[in-house]
TrEMBL record:
The chain holds residues 17 to 288 of 551 of the full protein. It comes from Sporormia fimetaria CBS 119925. Keywords: Metal-binding, NAD, Transferase, Zinc. The lineage of its organism: Eukaryota, Fungi, Dikarya, Ascomycota, Pezizomycotina. Belongs to the sirtuin family. Class I subfamily. One of its GO terms (molecular function) is NAD+ binding. This is SIR2-domain-containing protein. One of its GO terms (cellular component) is nucleus. Residues 1-263 form the Deacetylase sirtuin-type domain. Zn(2+) binds at C139, C142, C163, C168. The active site is at H131.
Length: 272
């Protein structure tokens, strides 16, 4: 059951022949750049290259829990730009939804906090938000949930919200996963799923943050892993059945949809 051609056509063939029907998808910030959201590590356009105004000791400090404890303001200065709502899903997001509609999507693991997968129509129970999301907020000390409307106000006003619990006064933050924090338990409960997959598609991520970066490694050797990304990352390409589709992910996804005979359907789904 090996992949004869390490090409987009070879992958499409697998799906068309029904030999790939448990697909795991792994995504990162690169699938949302064409929606207008910068990624983190692209040299000039990435978020980390554009944080001079925050005077951070190192760029990733803005999402570091120890740094946040002492200095939460940089995060709240930036939060408005990260807050979901004003962006539209890309055709790559719609492609994930199309996989779901065709009954092929086993699970989507995303590092993104922009909620665009959900907005594109992928149902909640298919999505593992490995780095959390802005959907909930709580105190970093006593863990008490914090009201949504007050969080929106804080983000709008670039002010730092504090826990309302008597005598706590701890810092409140959206439940996005910072460096130094645990990933949600559902990540660990599902991280072995790639073992059961018969196709893996990795898109728009530098695979540079653990433990997410270890996910493609859970695929068995006989599971083709397709990387649709600007650059080669995470050792994908080293296994015999790995397929590299380097370049813009919207373009790569259109190519794959074309090879599957799904392009019109995809464009229509995206235009909805
Ligand atoms: P990165 O910024 O590290 O990587 C984005 C990847 O997508 C890079 O390999 C880019 O070359 C590629 N890329 C960008 N635009 C693209 C496009 N239009 N088409 C194809 N590829 C494109 O983002 P992530 O891998 O998501 O965590 O970063 C992982 C984590 O690091 C984030 O979840 C965030 C960050 O710190 C936390 O904040 C906890
Ligand atoms: Zn508290």
């Amino acid at each position: 059951r090996t992949l004869k051609a390490r090409t987009v056509d070879g992958v499409a063939q697998l799906i068309k022949e029904g030999r790939a029907k448990k697909v795991v998808v792994m995504t990162g910030a690169g699938i949302s750049t064409s929606a207008g959201i910068p990624d983190f590590r692209s040299p000039d356009t990435g978020l980390y290259a554009n944080l001079q105004r925050l005077n951070l000791p190192f760029a990733e400090a803005v999402f570091d829990i120890s740094y946040f404890r002492n200095n939460p303001l940089p995060f709240y200065t930036l939060a408005q730009e990260l807050f979901p709502g004003k962006y539209r899903p890309t055709i790559t997001h719609s492609f994930i939804n199309l996989l779901h509609q065709k009954g092929l999507l086993m699970k989507l693991f995303t590092q993104n906090i922009d909620c665009l997968e959900r907005e594109a129509g992928v149902p909640d129970d298919k999505i593992i938000e490995a780095h959390g999301s802005f959907a909930r907020q709580s105190c970093i000390e006593c863990r008490k949930p914090y009201p949504r409307d007050l969080m929106e106000k804080a983000i709008r006003e670039k002010s730092v919200p504090r826990c309302l619990e008597d005598g706590c006064g701890g810092l409140v933050k959206p439940e996005i996963v910072f460096f130094g924090e645990q990933l949600p338990s559902e990540f660990f409960a599902n991280r072995h799923l790639p073992e059961e997959a018969d196709l893996c598609i990795v898109m728009g991520t530098s695979l540079s943050v653990q433990p997410f970066a270890s996910l493609p490694g859970f695929c068995t050797d006989s599971t083709p892993r397709v990387l649709i990304n600007q650059e080669q990352v995470g050792g994908i390409g080293l296994r015999p059945d790995d397929v590299l589709v380097l370049g813009d992910c919207d373009e790569g996804v259109r190519k794959l949809a074309g090879a599957l005979g799904w392009l019109d359907e995809l464009e229509a789904l995206w235009a909805k």
